[in-house]
User: What shape does this take?
Amino acid sequence: MLEWRTLALGAGVFVATFAGGWAIGLGKSSNAFTPAGADASPTLVSAPATPAIAGWPPGSGLTDNELLRRSVVLRGHAFRYPACDSDSRTLYLIAATNYAEVLMRTAGCQNFPICPVSEAELDRVWQARRSILDRPVAEAMLAVHTAGGLKPRDFQGGVATALRVIAGADLPGGPLPDCVRSSNPSKSGWQPEPRR
Assistant: This one.
C-alpha cells in the first residue's frame, strides 16, 4: 500500500534533482559544462543573411503568409501556360485579388474592394512594406500583365489599381494565352477543345 511518506520522499527527490540541474545550468544554451571561449550559441549552422537586391530590402514583407505569395506565383505561371481543360484565369484572379486585398487593407481600405485610397498612396505603402520575399509575386504579376488576357474590369473595385502598383505595369487586355494540350491523351477518346 502506498503511504504519504513514500509520496513525500518521491516529490522531494524530484525537487532536489530539478533544483540541482537548475543550479548547474543544465538546459541552458551556456552552462557550466561549456568550455571557456567556446561559442554558446544554440545554432549549429550559421544561416547566411538574405542578400539585399537593389530596391528589395530584407524583411518579412507585405504579409507573413507564404502560402498567399506562393499561390500568386503558381497561379500566374498556370495563367501564362494554361492547360486546355483548366480554368487558370479564374484561379489567378482569386489569388491576385487576395494578395491585392492585403496591400489595400494595409493602406487603410476597410471597405474592400471599394477603396478611396489613391494609387499614389498605395504605391507609397507598397514601397515601404515590400521586401525581397515579395519580389517573386511582383515578377509573376508583371509576367501575367505582359502576357495579356486581363483587363482592369476583370477585377472588382480598386483591385486593378493595387495590382498595377504591385506589378509596376498596367493590364493591357488582349487575347488569353494559348492553352497547352496534355501529353497524355484521354482514355475515353474525348479531347478538350482549345479556347477561342
Summary: DSSP finds six helices and no strands in the chain.
